[in-house]
Amino acid sequence: MNFVLILLVGSNSQTTTTQSLISCIRRFDIDNNQTLIFDCPVGSTMETFDIDNLTMIDTIEKLQVFGTYVRGPLKFIPENICNFTKLKVNITR
């Protein structure tokens, strides 16, 4: 199986950012519960993934992070990405 991290620029749980205090919304893809999606509004940054209370972490194969109208919200890949044991990284624009 191939697993993908997709970082996209474009535009639902509780990722708190330390710089802007704007939250990203965490949700699962409706058609594929193996895809975790973070939707982040303008002005948000993400230093870590909000996965501490995530019980399905061992089933996640894809991770998508969407920013709105600007580059980001990731300035770097957070170190807790290593907690996704089934994830392989393929970064796209």
> Could you say which overall geometry the principal axes of the C-alpha atoms support?
globular
Unreliable stretches (pLDDT < 50, length at least 5) are 1-20
Overall average pLDDT: 74
Q: β content, as a range?
A: 15-25%
E-strand count: 4
Radius of gyration: 12 Å
What is the count of structural domains?
1
Estimated structural class:
mainly beta
Give me the strand/helix succession.
EEEE
The major beta sheet can be summarized as: 4 strands, mixed
Describe the structure.
With 93 residues, this protein is mainly beta. The protein has one domain (4-83). It has no helices and 4 strands. A hairpin with a 6-residue loop joins strand 2 and strand 3 (35-39). The chain is globular and about 30 Å long.
Short summary of the structure?
It is built from no helices and four strands. With 93 residues, it is an all-beta fold.
